[in-house]
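Appendix B. Chain record.
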Amino acid sequence: MADYLVEFIFNELVNKIEANKGLALFALRRAKFEGWLKLELCDSLLKISHNVVPEKDYIDIVFDDWAVELKTVNTSYRYESVMNKTRPITANVDSVLTDIRKLRDKNYLHKAVLFVVFPLEENKKEWLKHLDKIKRELKELHQKPFRFKNGIGGVIYFGIIE
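Structure tokens predicted for this chain:
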């Protein structure tokens, strides 16, 4: 079930991200879009479950026997055509780690964290050291690169929590 779910979510969200002109504007400014992500994930999950509930038990999305926390992680890595801004990548990573640890204490059969990192080229050396911190807290981690409508790169991750 987990492999099917990961592929389903990746296909749904990557298609939505890559087609959305408005999100491309957010990427240009390194602006977060977690609310949009939550809304679109709920919309997608309703195709496979009738039991999708946002903001239940202080968890972003709960459906069937799954609890999922969401994050958008904006980086400060130089990226052509993207506004240069200082972004606290360490604080963003710590926020993902906090969500993972929070879910460990929740009483759901399956727990996961879904996060979108942008602007980012897959396997960027500076990012990989942060990603290693996250991987150490997970049972498994899946990833899929994508491009916003304006060509800015990003990666979507889905981590399964033990």
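Further analysis of this model is presented in Appendix C.
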